[in-house]
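Hi P.,

Sorry for the delay on this. The queue was packed all week, but I finally got your sequence through. Input first:
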Amino acid sequence: MAFVAETGSGHLLTMDGAVDGGGRNLAPRPMETVLAGTGGCAAYDVVLILKRGRHPVSGCSVRVQADRAEADPKVFTRIHMQFTVSGRALSATAVERAIRMSHEKYCSASAMLAKTAEITTGFEIVEV
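Then the structure:
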């Protein structure tokens, strides 16, 4: 139940299943990679939007938590993305706007997941 995907950019991504499903728990589950990719997509957008606005951003992380449907297909039904954005004298208004723009316009992954899941966001700013 372990799989290796080669991405369009030529990188390898390993996935595995849980032991109770025949896997060996040696890598993330496929649905975990979907969430991780969504978090990465959104964080990338947030940093890019802030940098383009000449805001002094130095980092961004996002914690993604989700609920899934009980029955097959077990789609995501609720996703919360909690951003931690670091920089010098970052404006909460600018960070909030960047997150909103990512969610509403730029992040293809969250746009797809929003078809089945309620997506909410939050953020904190860390001064560096």
